[in-house]
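Milestone M4 deliverable, item 7.
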Amino acid sequence: MKIELRLGGSGGQGIILTGIILAEAAISMGKNAIQSQSYGPEARGGASKSEIIVSDKEIYFTKVNKPNLFLALTQDAYDKYNKEVVQGGICVLDDGIRTGTEVVGRTIYKLPIVQTATEEVGRAMVTNIVALGILSEVMTTLDTEAIKEAMLHRIPKGTEEINLRAFEAGIKLIRDLLESRYEDGKDQKKKPSRDKLFGRTGLESEVAIKSANYLSEKTALEEADHPADKDPNKLPQIYTKQTGMNYE
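Output delivered:
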């Protein structure tokens, strides 16, 4: 198992810390992990990026080339960093971000991440922790408790209460979204099943956000679907085609 994550936001939103927490959570679970980061020309306010690789095996190449999971908190970060996300990958986006036909074939979660931090929790500085709670539910490769413990180890003393509130708010956001999609009948085409990347497929999400001028709904869903159930012998080829990685 190997996954690549890319987190993007504005300088000052805590994206780098979020990446460090995820990497440390992976290590605490006995996995191998690396984290790297980069900033825009502005130290604060410009787009920043944190990248993480998690693997059960040795990591020999430390650059993220084809992220399986992408988080974007700002439009600037989305525009700069979304292009390499694999087909079949997951994008967790603040609901203020505008997207186009590039999302076809990717699972998209649009959520009021920034708004929840500022209005519900009451502090914009915990936007990254709200996002961390969402990621802890989406990326089931890592245990939620391991992520929470890594977070509590990294945050400043005295901020535990507000950060835990933000973390739980993020978990609630994604759970409410998934529940509403299920109730609306959008995700009943197949039951949840385990997968190699994040432990979940099917019920948890709309598989693709479609553009009416680009692909029909039927075509988009067929292309995004994981047809392993139809022919298990083709799973390695399907996985490699969708992720650009060998099926291990």
